[in-house]
Each structure stands twice: as structure tokens, then as C-alpha cells.
Automatic annotation (TrEMBL):
Keywords, sorted A to Z: CBS domain
The name this protein goes by in its record: Nucleotidyltransferase family protein
Stored CDD domains: CBS_pair_NTP_transferase_assoc, NTP_transferase_like_2
Source species, domain of life: Bacteria
Organism: Pseudoalteromonas shioyasakiensis
Amino acid sequence: MTANWQKVIIPPTASIREALEVIDKEALRVAVVVLGCDTLVGVVTDGDIRRGILKGIELSAPVSTIMNKEPTSANVALSSCELMAIMQDCKILSLPLVDDEGKLVGLKTLYDTLEVEKRQNPVFIMAGGFGTRLRPLTDNCPKPMLKVGGKPMLETLINNFKSHGFYKFYISTHYLPEVIENYFGDGSALGIEITYVYEKEPLGTGGALSLLPKSLPKEPLIMINGDILTNVDFGKVLDFHVKQLSDATMCVRDYEIKVPFGVIEGEGHEITDIVEKPTYRYFVNAGIYVISNNIIKSLPSNEHLDMPTLFEQKQRLGHKVLKFPIHEYWLDVGRHDDFNKAQTDIHELGI
């Protein structure tokens, strides 16, 4: 039984945002919704939250609007093998445990008991930027090699990928490439494989894809900026891409803009509506992508191309391009304020 299962219990009146905080903080990938002290009424996974976000449900809404109201549960008296069989049959990662009276008494998870499956998919990390906004910290150090929590951000990112079974890495370098190469070498010390791709001139995120070797594995590739601190489950992103038969998938984040004034709507001099202090929500690019091999092969060599332009081009040509909303912790460490925030946040992320 999971030792800290009580920490993922929330009431049905809790907001979706509160459920999200519980899921991210406790790393059990589920929040258990309980009425009173011990009556199980639902469970919430990150998938439930993701689907709610796509439907436009506000994070301030009660968790009861998105929870699974008929969760699978099992009697606590069952053996571990029996509980594991239930989870495998139902394809779930966690199982609430109840006593003979149906009261919640625990939680069993499958995630930590299963061996992490090795994935052949390549991971391409962009680590060639100058980090101009972080000077003087980057005067003699590439931005992804700046230490957060006593370890280079790039190493933390690689370790997160490793925890999800990825071991084939390609790292794009340009500014001070020797600092990165001397630190990681061929990756064998970390139990991974690293191939370096040197950009003589910055080609943009999309253009750098054309520099990858022809021996690149045919499986879809995950691409990410090397200055991102996140605990995203990259396996889930990849599984979505494959299941949806996507050619290119962009991870996006829900971004809110709150206008502190009344917004006046109308045409010409006529006022048709007054919206008091509205909140507008948008999906923004999170700098994480899954790209299928056919897209990579189609790119011209050594031509500058940014990733949004690549997505626009392929969409016009009829390729399937999708968005995948992420709700997990995410921070683009581009400024000094971000760097200072990362130093605090890293201790709570468990990565």
C-alpha cells in the first residue's frame, strides 16, 4: 500500500487547480475524492484534468465536474498479485482500497512496481543558445549548463527523460559546445547514448532537425529546449502522438490574461457590451514537440526554420498536427527571475 496515500485525498468541493497541485506534488498521478472522512466518491487523474482543459472548463471549477464518479476500487484483503491483475486488466495506474463496509482505507499503485520500458525514440535537446538575458552567468557557461539545485539544468532534464525509459539522446550545440561535451562525454557514465549535433550558424528549432544523422531511429522524436525545467511525463506525450497518428505534436500550456478594467465591445461609436475585468485564456507553445520521421526527412538541409513555421507549413500541406496540453510544472529559465525561482522550485519537484 502506498505510504502517503492520505496526502492525495481531496473533497468534491476542491477546485480542479487544487486537485492538480495534489497530483503534481505527490507524484502519485491521481487525486482521490472523498466525501466526509472515508466515503469514496471519485478519482481524478491528470488525463481527466487535461480533457477538462481542452473543453474550456476553468481550473477554479469544482473537481466534481471532471472526476470519474464510478472509479474502480478493490477490497483491501486482496493480495498484491490480485490487485496488480485488476489494475492491468482495467489499464489503470492506481487502485483505491476499501474495507468490507466500502470505506476508503488505502491506495495501491502500479507505477512504481513496473519496470520502466526502454524506448527507442530519440530525444533531441536544443542546447546551443547564447543565454544573453542571463549574463553574466552565461559569459563562460552555456545556459543549459547553469546549475539549479547543484546540478546542470541539462542533466536534470536528461535524468527526467531517463526515468521514462529514454536513452538515445542528440544534443544540438553552438555556444561553448566543449563545456557540454566535456561534462557528458558520450553519455555512458549516465547509462545513455549521446550524439552531438553542432550548428555552425543558428538554424532555429526546426532547422536544426535537418542536421540529425541519417542513422536516426525511425521512431517519432521528442524535441525540447535545453533551458526548460519540468516534470512532464514525456512517455504520455509520446503515447498521445502515436495513438493519434500525429505527424507533429506541440505541447501547449494554458495561459490566462486578466484585464483589470472593463472591456468595451462594439462597432464604431456604438457600445454593444461591457465585460467587467474579463479573463482571456490561450494555449501557448511550451517548447516541447514530438516529430515523426517523415517530417524530419522532408526538411531541407541547413536552412533556418523556426518550429511554429514548420507546424504551419505542414498543416497547409495536409499533415496531421496536434496540440497536447500539459499541466505539470514547467518553467522556461530565460531570465534572472526565472533562474532564481528555479533554485527554489527544484526542491519540490522530485526530479
